[in-house]
Amino acid sequence: MKVLVVGGAGYIGSHCVRQLIAAGHEPVVLDNLVYGHKGALTPEVPFYEGDLGDKEFVGKVLKDEGIELVMHFAAYCFVGESVTEPFKYYENNVVATLRLLEVMHEVGVKKFVFSSTCATYGVPERLPMTEDLAQAPINPYGQTKLDVENILKALSHAYGLSFAAFRYFNAAGASVDGSIGEDHQPETHLIPLVIDAAVGKRENIKIFGTDYDTPDGTCLRDYVHVDDLSRAHIAVFDKLSEPGQAFFYNLGTGTPNSVREVISAVERVTGKKVPVIEDVRRPGDPPALFADSTKAQTELGWKVEFDSIDKIVETAWNWHSKNPNGYND
Ligand code: UFG
């Protein structure tokens, strides 16, 4: 299948490109390189630099490349920033996405795979989290993702768009060969920050809250390897062959790890002591988020390969060791 990967120079998109090639598909990358990295591109994959909201540009790429399916990873993803700069998030994550869907409709591309998030659930009413839980986001980031899910439902109903929306839990890790990995600017995610603290690039890691109602008082999250996430995107292709299909899947390992457990895993894997400071809670952090991914397992045959936090951290550490300053671009 000829697949346009929008945001293919970003963290999850770049890993998905590699998995598409491994599965025999033909990816084409579109990215404006605002947050993406040239170093994350795969040299033999066609690359178009530009904005997903630029209909003329995107329409030309769709037609010239004979695209059959679009995967969309090009969202802004900093929860805190979404609270202070909501225009930026609605503009890119909703308005530009709508332009992308509009031009797909005009050109006649009818298959779409969307990166959604467990943040669409807000504070979950039940754990582990199944797809039928109420969606009540507690920040604009999660709301923008839910808005797109709702737009997709309407387009599927009205025009026969077939789509899958994957609600990721905490994407983590890096490619096994250490050639691509996680490099956000600024970095806010736990695992890369703990690795930085282990190697002395940061003085310490702050634990945001030690008084949660969890076994060790720190937040529980479901860290899922970026290659496992990517494989689900490809496993869903067969289900999108008929028009008007709509699928929603939670993607997580189902095994939560606390902030302290992640720090211990980094210490085991790197063999280095991590200096820790116990800090106050970060606003907007739910105490626990972990997935029930039975639906993806049953319907897509999805199975995680990286089934422990140590395995995930090993790949992140391998990438970091080979690229101590990230992509350098
Ligand atoms: N944390 C710390 N110290 C840090 C950074 C993080 O204690 O320096 C804690 C957070 O409080 C949280 C856990 O580590 O409990 C994980 O934090 P991340 O920032 O790595 O990830 P989040 O769970 O906040 O966010 C992730 C994705 C978002 C997505 C969200 C869904 O990055 O895109 O999951 O809730 F929206």
Structure, explained:
With 329 residues, this protein is of the alpha/beta class. The protein has a domain of 198 residues: NAD(P)-binding Rossmann-like Domain (Rossmann fold, 3-Layer(aba) Sandwich), CATH 3.40.50.720. The chain contains 10 helices and 13 strands. The strands form 4 sheets. A 7-stranded parallel sheet has the order 3-2-1-4-5-6-11, sandwiched between helices. The longest helix has 22 residues. It binds uridine-5'-diphosphate-4-deoxy-4-fluoro-alpha-D-galactose. Uridine-5'-diphosphate-4-deoxy-4-fluoro-alpha-D-galactose binds next to helix 6 and strand 8.
Number of helices: 10
Q: For the largest beta sheet, what order do the strands appear in spatially?
A: 3-2-1-4-5-6-11
> What is the element string, with H for helices and E for strands?
EHEEHEHHEHEEHEEEHEEHEHH
The coarse silhouette is globular
Largest sheet: 7 strands, parallel
Distance between the termini: 31 Å
Looking at this structure, what is the CATH superfamily of the domain at 2-171 and 224-251?
Answer: NAD(P)-binding Rossmann-like Domain
Radius of gyration over alpha carbons?
19 Å
Structural class: alpha/beta
> What is the class of the domain at 2-171 and 224-251 in the CATH system?
Alpha Beta
What's the overall average pLDDT, rounded? 97
Helix fraction, binned, reads 25-40%
Pick out the low-confidence regions.
none
CATH-defined topology of the domain at 2-171 and 224-251: Rossmann fold
The appropriate CATH architecture of the domain at 2-171 and 224-251 is: 3-Layer(aba) Sandwich
Which ions and ligands are bound to the chains? Answer: uridine-5'-diphosphate-4-deoxy-4-fluoro-alpha-D-galactose
